[in-house]
Amino acid sequence: MIIRENINLSDLTTMRLGGPADFLIEIESPEECPDAFDFAQEKNLPIYFLGLGANSIGLDEGFRGAIIKNAIKGYNILEETKDELIIKVGGGEVWDDFVEFVSKKGFSGVEAMSKIPGTVAAAPVQNIGAYGQEVKDTLVSVEAFDSLLNEFVEIPAEEMDFSYRHSIFNSGETKGRYFILTCTFRLKKENPKPPFYNSLQSYLDEHKITDYTPENIRIAVSNIRAEKLPDPEKIPSAGSFFKNIYLTEKEVKPAEEKGVPIRKAEKTDKNGKKYTEYKVNTGWLLENADLKGKVFHGFKVSDKAALILINESATSEKDLELAKKEISDKVEEKFGLKLEQEPVFVKEIKQEVDEE
Ligand SMILES: Cc1cc2nc3c(=O)[nH]c(=O)nc-3n(C[C@H](O)[C@H](O)[C@H](O)COP(=O)(O)OP(=O)(O)OC[C@H]3O[C@@H](n4cnc5c(N)ncnc54)[C@H](O)[C@@H]3O)c2cc1C
């Protein structure tokens, strides 16, 4: 266990904002967990869990507490047959290294999520996804430290209440309760099957790629992303700053009257009930509110992928708040829809108690 003091959040997060955190505790093996939590408890410190900070934004005042970071490494192959691979991965592994490892072995299920920045442990938290794949589709379970009961637990994926950018780890009474240590995935030895996302299919056609191996899809996705998404090593951002919007049936008509395209899809919920999903692409809203490429308080609405806010010159999170308000107001004025922020602020994680 490594404990460091006074570490700038701007150095720990890809948006490159935020003052100092009092303590940063890096955990290199699950056994170190109880000591790390005891350390914070004895000093009465609030806790924030951090990976590579690609979906976390530091506040100007920093964090008067302890940041616990998963630095547990390693791949443990639990089962490998000609059909599938079951693999347990240390939560501190870089997500894209894991995707590369399994894609190269010919196993499918995560290749479309190539190049998503961050750790393996953070992947289930907001159920990361890209080009039609989501973590929920291949995750079997996680090992975690339950900070409420001070014990190790294994949580099966069926109990994680996954949906778009949502899980038990980032919502409700269980928000911030479990520190994820390792993640186990089940991947198939097969080629990914079309239909692929339009931009991915266009890339494959253009490059005359018809052999849809996991590795070829990974290379295609990596190249598409390199063209339009900022490299967090060089250009500060937290990826998509706003979430896509899911409408209720009642909200569909007013949105359509304002010209908003809505993608309708028939879905089945976890209880087997059929429903229609109404999805609005927030990138479209930003583009059609004429915000693409515009700069607000040092933050640019990316001209290549409008959902992304690039930190061009800002040093204060207050400027981000101002930029967010101006952008959201413009979208609401034009389309009557409210935008919701995707990345989270580094502050004490509070469980959300249902008031009903
Ligand atoms: C350029 C760019 C592109 C991106 N593209 C995508 C994309 O295509 N799809 C997508 O879904 N996301 C995308 N993201 C968002 C980001 O990559 C993901 O959310 C990723 O999972 C963040 O990983 P991290 O380790 O950096 O998480 P962090 O930002 O460190 O943490 C994210 C959340 O997970 C929690 N957390 C971290 N570690 C643990 C742990 N061990 N146990 C419990 N909770 C924990 C944190 O408290 C926080 O709530 C992008 C971001 C960037 C900068």
What does the model show?
It is a single chain. The chain contains 7 helices and 20 strands. It folds into 3 domains: 2-70, Uridine Diphospho-n-acetylenolpyruvylglucosamine Reductase, domain 2; 75-188, Uridine Diphospho-n-acetylenolpyruvylglucosamine Reductase, domain 3 (2-Layer Sandwich), CATH 3.30.465; 237-344, Uridine Diphospho-n-acetylenolpyruvylglucosamine Reductase, domain 1 (Alpha-Beta Complex), CATH 3.90.78. By secondary structure, the chain is α+β, with helices and mostly antiparallel strands. The strands form 6 sheets. The protein has a 5-stranded antiparallel sheet, with no helix packed on it. Strands 1-2-5-3 form a 4-stranded mixed sheet, with helices on one face. The chain has helices at 33-42, 95-104, 198-206, 214-228, 249-257, 282-288, 317-335; strands spanning 2-8, 20-27, 47-50, 56-57, 63-70, 75-80, 84-90, 129-130, 133-134, 139-146, 151-156, 178-188, 237-240, 245-247, 263-268, 274-280, 295-296, 299-301, 308-311, 344-345. Bound molecules: flavin-adenine dinucleotide. Flavin-adenine dinucleotide binds at residues 14, 48-56, 70, 91, 116-119, 121-123, 125-126, 128-130, 169-170, 179-180, 229-230, 232, 237-239, 344.
